Every structure is written in structure tokens, then in C-alpha cells.
């Protein structure tokens, strides 16, 4: 298959020589992904389970967004009670007390803008009865989402040796929020909000990138002594959106500077390079016992991998598929994957679909196929076996 692909893309020759330096981050762990092309741009200790601090509130919010969509008894106007345990929660606060009955929408704003630990406990108790039960549900949901390095002990990110997330997992829940619940994503861009006059100082979003004019529109900061300073951020410029996660920075200033550096680097140093438009036939793949011997593999959408701006040379491409494909095959059915590779980036994969229907072959075709299989078995059995001492 490789020869076919290289012939189709004459611009592709082996060996793309990088003419740039890889990004060096001061964060102890980091992960950057371009969501538009699903391309990982930076991965540093990204799969190590670490204390996530308040960044884990994203998982609490995901659970709340899911409840809003799937539980008819939970709406933005639903009011939750405030327990003495929620009121007594320390750290960042929404300044709730037992007399308050905040709405779900107010709790979302209180978690996003004020990073209210009390608000997360109210959500946990309102949805699951207790924070412990909610933490178990968080862990189960994280595993279902593919977040293999995440376990939760509480709803707020309060320090606990059982409360851990990896940077990749934080990026996964962020992507799921953006893609599964876009109707609620706008809350993360709020720069200021307070529940009432009790919070005159704690009414400003700690995300240092909001309002800088660089496309940043979320999501959540975090800080504890154990975790250091961290941020899960997202920014969109043009058609591209990136998500990044950093942790282990030494100060708020370091967090702000490093986050802005990452956004600038991700957008300025990488560009999309179009290899094929939607409907382009990439290759003819062999078909087993079909009414025709091959089927065209076409790109259902534009194939435009993300590549380093200053790179010279070209990309390597190949097709991954189980060949021969067995008939019947339906037009539009995914039958292969085009893999694009280059240095300093993970392989990028694009689906290929069948160009047309391929019916199962008639009796003669099936007899010929059976004969071919029988012949191969006979030849294999007749191959002399050499003993070694």
C-alpha cells in the first residue's frame, strides 16, 4: 500500500527535516492538542497521575452538564440546598450558607468564575446525595470516557492522595465538554461574576488569558501547595482550536506567561497542509469474493494534517487496512485509514471510505476463492521442513 500512496502524493518524499526547536516548557507536566486535527503538539509527563487541584472541577461540571441534558428533574433553574458541610468547605468559595438556595446556573458560574469549593459540594450532594457517592460516580464516568489515570475522592480537587488526574485526562474531559455540551461552554469565558455582595473580592475569573485577544475562552485554573499552579485552557483562532494543560508552575505569573507562550507557539508554529479534498480517491484496495476485485478508498472529507510551519521536506503517508476487504461492502463504509507521519508530532489518522457498493460475488467467484485458499494450503504443506540441532 505504501507505494500506492507515495505515487498519489508526489509531494511526499521520505524524511521531513525539522527547521525549528521543539517547545520547552517550564511546567512539570503538560499536554497540548489541536482539536481541529486531533494532533498532539506537546506531551510532557502527560500520562502521570498527579494532584489536579481545582482543575478537576471540570469533571464535576461535566457531570452536571450531563445531568442537565439527561435528567428531566435538573434544569438551569433548579435550586439546590446548601448543607453545613458545603458551607464549611475551605479554600476558594462562593460564600454560600445554609439559608441559600442557589440555582444550577448560579452554581456553574460559581464554580467557573469563583472556583467555589462550596459550590461543588452543593452540586455533588444535589446530584448524588453525598460527596463520596458523587466522587465514585466521577471515577466511573472518567473510566467510561477513556480517562485511565483519573480517580476522584471529592468534587472540588481538595488535596487527597486518592484524588489524581493526568494531563491527558484533563484534556479528554475538556474535549468532551466542548464537543458534548457546547451549549454550556460559554460560561467558561465569563471574566467576572459574584453570587451576591458577600463576594466583592472573589468575583474575578483567575484564568489569565481571558480578554487578551488571543482567542482564549476557557477553562479552569488550579493551585495547591502540592500541585503548584496549573491551567486547563482552550483557544480558538480561525478554524483551529487547541486545548492545553499545564501544572507544577511556581507562581501565578509563571502560569500566565507559560500559558500565553503555549497559545502563541501552537498557532504560529503549526499550519494545516492540504493533501486531498473530500471525494478524492486515495487508492484501490483488493476485495475478497466480491463482484469486483477492487474498491476505491476515498477521503470523505478534506485531508489536511497539521505540520510545523518551518519544516522542510515532506510527509510520509501510508494506508492501514485489513486486506483483502471482504464483500459485501457499502458505499461510504469506512474501510481504511490514511496515516500521515512527520517528526516532532504524533501520527495523524484520517478515515477512508468505500467509493461504491461491492456486492458479494457469485458462485464462480466463491469457487475460485476457495480454490486459491486450498492451493495455498497445499503449497504450505509441501514446503520441506528443515530440522535444526
Helix/strand/pairing class, anyone? alpha+beta
| CATH-assigned fold name of the largest domain | Beta-lactamase
For the secondary structure, the number of strands is 15
Judging from the principal axes of the Cα atoms, what is the shape?
A: elongated
* Assigned CATH architecture of the largest domain: 3-Layer(aba) Sandwich
- Write down the overall mean pLDDT: 88
Report the β-strand fraction as a percent range: 15-25%
Reported for the largest beta sheet, the result is:
6 strands, mixed
Q: What distance separates the N and C termini?
A: 39 Å
Radius of gyration, taken over Cα atoms and rounded to an integer in Å: 26 Å
CATH class of the largest domain: Alpha Beta
- Strand line-up of the largest beta sheet: 12-14-15-9-8-13
Please report the number of helical segments: 10
Helical content stands at: 25-40%
Plain-language structure description:
- The radius of gyration is 26 Å and the shape is elongated.
- The longest helix is centred in the C-terminal third of the chain and has 20 residues, at 363-382.
- It is an alpha+beta fold and 389 residues long.
- 30% of the residues lie in helices and 22% in strands.
- It folds into two domains: 2-15 and 274-363, D-Ala-D-Ala carboxypeptidase, C-terminal domain (Peptidoglycan synthesis regulatory factor (PBP3), Domain 2, Sandwich); 21-268, Beta-lactamase.
- Strand 2 and strand 3 form a beta hairpin.
Amino acid at each position: 500500500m505504501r507505494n500506492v500512496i507515495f505515487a498519489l502524493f508526489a509531494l511526499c518524499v521520505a524524511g521531513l527535516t525539522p527547521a525549528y526547536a521543539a517547545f520547552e516548557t517550564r511546567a512539570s507536566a503538560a499536554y497540548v492538542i489541536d482539536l481541529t486535527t486531533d494532533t498532539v503538539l506537546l506531551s510532557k509527563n502527560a500520562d502521570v497521575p498527579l494532584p489536579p487541584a481545582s482543575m478537576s472541577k471540570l469533571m464535576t461540571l461535566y457531570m452536571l452538564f450531563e445531568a442537565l441534558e439527561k435528567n428531566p428533574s435538573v434544569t438551569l433553574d433548579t435550586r439546590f440546598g446548601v448543607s453545613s458541610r458545603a458551607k464549611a468547605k475551605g479554600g476558594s468559595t462562593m460564600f454560600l450558607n445554609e439559608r441559600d438556595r442557589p440555582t444550577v446556573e448560579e452554581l456553574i458560574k460559581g464554580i467557573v468564575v469563583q472556583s467555589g469549593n462550596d459550590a461543588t459540594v452543593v452540586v455533588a450532594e444535589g446530584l448524588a446525595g453525598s460527596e463520596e457517592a458523587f466522587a465514585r460516580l466521577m471515577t466511573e464516568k472518567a473510566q467510561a470516557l477513556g480517562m485511565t489515570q483519573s480517580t476522584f475522592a471529592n468534587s472540588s480537587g481538595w488535596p487527597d492522595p486518592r484524588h489524581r488526574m493526568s494531563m491527558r485526562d484533563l484534556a479528554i474531559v475538556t474535549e468532551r465538554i466542548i464537543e458534548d455540551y457546547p451549549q454550556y461552554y460559554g460560561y467558561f469565558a465569563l471574566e467576572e461574576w459574584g453570587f451576591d455582595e458577600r463576594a466583592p473580592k472573589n468575583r474575578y475569573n483567575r484564568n489569565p488569558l481571558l480578554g487578551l485577544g488571543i482567542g482564549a475562552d476557557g477553562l479552569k485554573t488550579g493551585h495547591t501547595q502540592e500541585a503548584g499552579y496549573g491551567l486547563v485552557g482552550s483557544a480558538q483562532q480561525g478554524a483551529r482550536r487547541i486545548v492545553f494543560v499545564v501544572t507544577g508552575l511556581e507562581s501565578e505569573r509563571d502560569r500566565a506567561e507559560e500559558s500565553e507562550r503555549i497559545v502563541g507557539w501552537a498557532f504560529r508554529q503549526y499550519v494545516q497542509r492540504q493533501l486531498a479534498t473530500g471525494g478524492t480517491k486515495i487508492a484501490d484496495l483488493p476485495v475478497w469474493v466480491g463482484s469486483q476485485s477492487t474498491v476505491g478508498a476515498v477521503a470523505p472529507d478534506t485531508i489536511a494534517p497539521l505540520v510545523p510551519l518551518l519544516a522542510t521536506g515532506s510527509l510520509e503517508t501510508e494506508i492501514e487496512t485489513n486486506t483483502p476487504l471482504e464483500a459485501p461492502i457499502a458505499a461510504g463504509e469506512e474501510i481504511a485509514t490514511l496515516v500521515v507521519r512527520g517528526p516532532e508530532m504524533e501520527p495523524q489518522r484520517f478515515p477512508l471510505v468505500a467509493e461504491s457498493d461491492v456486492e458479494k460475488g457469485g458462485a464462480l467467484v466463491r469457487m475460485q476463492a476457495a480454490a486459491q485458499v486450498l492451493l495455498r494450503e497445499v503449497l504450505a504443506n509441501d514446503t520441506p521442513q528443515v530440522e535444526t540441532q
